[in-house]
UniProtKB/TrEMBL annotation:
It holds the Pfam family MFS_1. It comes from Streptacidiphilus pinicola. This is MFS transporter. Keywords: Cell membrane, Membrane, Transmembrane, Transmembrane helix. Gene3D superfamilies: MFS general substrate transporter like domains. The lineage of its organism: Bacteria, Bacillati, Actinomycetota, Actinomycetes, Kitasatosporales. The keyword ATP-binding does not apply. Its main location: membrane. The chain crosses the membrane at residues 42-61, 73-96, 102-121, 128-150, 156-181, 201-224, 236-254, 266-283, 289-309, 330-352, 358-377.
Length: 420
């Protein structure tokens, strides 16, 4: 494994920690600023929307510099945002710090995925992308619980200060280990935008929104679901989230391993399995052991889609992958926001805390339908190309035969007496 992938994974670990640790520290932060919990929730919403906006914005701004330099600038922005959060004297400045941090999120993962894929052989690209995303999954196993513990023990500002320090480590690692990859030849905004005219790119991003939305439809409301339905204590929710993180870690490795071999079958299996497990969660949520097992499976199946979906976008947006890759990271967060909103609607309608699981199952099933459609379009395109190839080959062969015949006639004419 190239050491540069380790530097990218450290950056991903820091980003994953700062994104999700806010959920465990929200009561303390809201209390310190004297705002309600729903108002404090803007720190989560603002971050998600910042990722959606920042992913394409920062990537476009970075088209004039090398990818390594852009990754360093993004980690610098990440450090500044977390320091602002740690030192914010008012809630408004805290929110501003969260938004500044989020602007680096999508572009870092998008550009980082392109860089990771370029560091290895073509048949190992998905594995390299998965290695970078391992930092994000490990953050949910180690970073988030540890950050929550530190925040509750000595103050949430220390947590954000520590995350900023982690960002400095990631920045130095990128500066030292990532090779100075030049900008792609001919890379410019018009060419990057042209990738979005590819139906397969759009379908892959739609699969990202719906598939990952299915995961977070359930996970967003896991705390009230586990305490009110499964009967867990509030303190146990942290460990259930650790189980979810373990599932994410395992699923990410699985997706990276098999996406390089059989990408579309991998998507069919994981999206179909995710839809089934989410539907079953409406039943298993009533039992502590079954609920815990289901949470691991949701994390595993959900994150097993990440490497293949990201690689699918890179493959289909060949020649101009950077913006498409970053926008696909924004699509993950768009799925989070969409599913959280839909899950809240069904709970508000009085359908109970397990109702978001049905929402998630429907979203995952819709993503599976898009995956099947994408594969069908690809087969149709391949069949049409194969059908036209013999015609083209025959035309070339005919032209060659005609040219050969003319040469033979010319030689024969030249060889006859009187033409010497």
């Amino acid at each position: 494994m190239p050491l540069a992938l380790l530097a990218l994974a450290i950056g991903a670990f820091g980003i994953g920690t700062t994104e999700f640790v806010i959920m465990g520290l929200l009561p303390q932060i809201a209390g310190d600023f004297g705002v309600s919990i729903p108002t404090g929730g803007l720190l989560v919403t603002g971050y998600a929307l910042g990722v959606v906006v920042g992913a394409p914005l920062m990537t476009v701004l970075g088209t004039k510099v090398s990818r390594k330099k852009m990754l360093m600038l993004l980690m610098g922005l990440f450090v500044v945002g977390n320091l602002l959060s740690a030192l914010a004297p008012t809630f408004a400045l805290m929110l501003a710090g969260r938004i500044v941090t989020s602007l680096a999120h999508g572009a870092f993962f998008g550009i980082g995925a392109v860089v990771a894929a370029e560091l290895v052989a073509p048949n190992r690209k998905a594995g390299a992308i998965a290695t970078m995303f391992t930092g994000l999954t490990v953050a949910n196993i180690v970073g988030v619980p540890l950050g929550t513990f530190i925040g509750q023990a000595v103050g949430w500002r220390i947590t954000f200060g520590a995350v900023a320090a982690l960002g400095v480590v990631g920045l130095l690692g990128i500066a030292r280990l990532v090779p100075a990859l030049p900008r792609a030849e001919g890379a410019h905004l018009r060419r990057e935008l042209a990738a979005f005219r590819n139906t397969q790119v759009v379908l892959a991003m739609a699969m990202t929104v719906l598939g990952f939305g299915g995961v977070f439809a359930a996970v967003t409301y896991i705390a009230p679901m586990m305490t009110h339905v499964a009967g867990y204590s509030e303190g146990a929710v942290t460990w259930l989230l650790v189980l979810f993180g373990i599932g994410m870690f395992l699923g990410n490795l699985l997706g990276g391993r098999y996406a390089d071999r059989r990408l579309m079958p991998m998507l069919f299996t994981t999206l179909g399995g995710l839809a089934v497990v989410l539907a079953l969660f409406t039943l298993t949520a009533h039992d502590k052991i079954l609920a815990a097992v289901t949470i691991v499976l949701i994390g595993a199946l959900g994150f097993a889609t990440v490497p293949p979906l990201q690689k699918r976008v890179l493959d289909q947006a060949h020649g101009a992958p950077t913006l498409a890759s970053a926008v696909n990271i924004g699509a993950f967060n768009l799925g989070n926001a969409l599913s959280a909103w839909l899950g809240g609607l069904v709970i508000s309608a009085g359908l109970g805390y397990t109702a978001p699981n049905w929402v998630g199952a429907l979203l995952a099933a819709a993503a599976l339908v898009l995956a099947l459609w994408s594969a069908a379009l690809e087969r149709h395109t391949g069949a049409r190309a194969a059908a036209t190839a013999p015609v083209a080959d025959a035309a070339v062969a005919g032209a060659a035969a005609t040219d050969a015949a003319e040469v033979d006639r010319s030689l024969a004419t030249t060889a006859r007496p009187g033409h010497a």
